[in-house]
Specification:
The chain is mostly helical. The chain contains two helices and no strands.
């Protein structure tokens, strides 16, 4: 739900800034790809820390 709100907020901001519709699609797509990359990185860091703690406890 929050993600959809953020997308609409960005689209409205680009409309106010009078960015062309084709460029809006490109920028929004790039923003979504960047969000997925950051989320995956964050997940791997959190899982990596959990695995590291488990390995330390086993030793």
């Amino acid at each position: 739900m929050l993600g959809a709100f953020f997308i609409v907020l960005v689209q409205n901001g680009m409309n106010i800034a009078q960015i062309g519709s084709y460029l809006q699609i490109i920028l929004l797509g790039g923003l979504l790809i960047l969000a997925v990359i950051i989320d995956q990185f964050r997940y791997r860091v959190l899982v990596g820390r959990s695995c590291w703690k488990l390995k330390l406890q086993e030793v």
